[in-house]
Amino acid sequence: MRGATLGPIENSQHPGVGYGTAASEAALDELVANGCTWVSLTPFGRQWSLESAEIVLSFEAPVADNRAAVLRVMAQAHARGLKVFLIPHLWVELGGWRGEIAPAGPEGWRRWFASYTRFVLHWAQVAEEGRAEMFSIGVEMKSSSGTRGEWFSVIDAVRRRYHGLLTYSANWGEEDAVLFWDRLDVVGIQAFYPLTDQSDATLEMLRVGARQRARDVGAWAHRVGRPILFTEYGYTARRDPALRPWEWPDGMTQVRVDAEAQAIAYRALLEAFVREPWFVGAFVWRYYANPMDASQEADWGFSPRLRAAETVMRQVYDPALRWGGDAAQDPFGWHWAP
């Protein structure tokens, strides 16, 4: 899976350029030119706060409009030979990381899981109708993925609605605690790994950190007998993006744009993982459904478009470069092609 995430246009003031439009067709053409064989799509739902128990399906536009737009962009992707990974996300309106969602008490969790099941089944039905090849049941739900048995019921419900590959998108370091990998087809990791503990690290220094990450993940993959997928990976185009990748510079002053630092972080991470037979693919975070719109993130943001990181990605995604996981049969004996 040589993949990229194609994000929606997250502003209702930009009509006519999101999923399923001529703009997204142009974006998909760019992904194909960069060697992508898969595209990830990210519809959002929202909840008010980390303590809320109610998830609203509408986001920026009415849910029916978003649904139709996602089905259109899925058809656009398939027309270009791309396979589709649908990965619904949650947005917390008052801020905070979704991995810290914590509704109050057993009744709060019961209500939250009922609401979340409605949300995820809505998008599982869209995945089924649009013939998406893979679906994620959740993203970075660290506060419940290792402790709440309700996830088994969520997976069973999704399996009844959707018949492609299933994964879960665990935050890096969360994967060891997740309860339900045996119910899914592949382990998904949000791979925003720190690769160094030093400022201004060189490529060789980042390579050392990336190889250690690959050794640790590979040992764990063999223990659990599951192939590994990066459901997201990427680094911002700023100084030291692989030092503390979780730090978002919105509140910082004098943020220095550094496209080369982004590129060497890409190279170190990908080189360490793509040769491994247990590693089946990666989705870069992220491109946008209107390639001509630069307003979706700051100059130091994640997008590799027209930067040195895109050149690195194109080199590694070249079909002439064989990845360790390109065999039809994975090393654990699963024939898992959709």
How would you describe what is shown here?
By secondary structure, the chain is α/β, with parallel strands linked by helices. The protein has a single domain, classed as Glycosidases (TIM Barrel, Alpha-Beta Barrel), CATH 3.20.20.80. It is 35% helix and 17% strand. The chain has helices at 22-33, 63-79, 105-129, 142-145, 150-161, 203-224, 259-273, 308-317; strands spanning 2-7, 38-41, 44-47, 83-86, 89-92, 134-139, 165-171, 186-190, 228-233, 279-288. It has an eight-stranded parallel barrel with strand order 1-2-4-6-7-8-9-10, surrounded by five helices. The chain has a two-stranded parallel sheet with strand order 3-5. Helix 7 (259-273) links the parallel strand 9 (228-233) and strand 10. It is globular, with a radius of gyration of 19 Å. The two termini are 12 Å apart. The model is unreliable at 334-338 (pLDDT under 50).
Structure described in brief:
By secondary structure, the protein is α/β, with parallel strands linked by helices. Helix content is 35%, strand content 17%.
Itemize the secondary structure elements and their pairings.
Blueprint: E1 2-7, H1 22-33, E2 38-41, E3 44-47, H2 63-79, E4 83-86, E5 89-92, H3 105-129, E6 134-139, H4 142-145, H5 150-161, E7 165-171, E8 186-190, H6 203-224, E9 228-233, H7 259-273, E10 279-288, H8 308-317
Parallel strand pairs: 1-2, 1-10, 2-4, 3-5, 4-6, 6-7, 7-8, 8-9, 9-10
Helix pairs in contact: 3-5, 6-7, 7-8
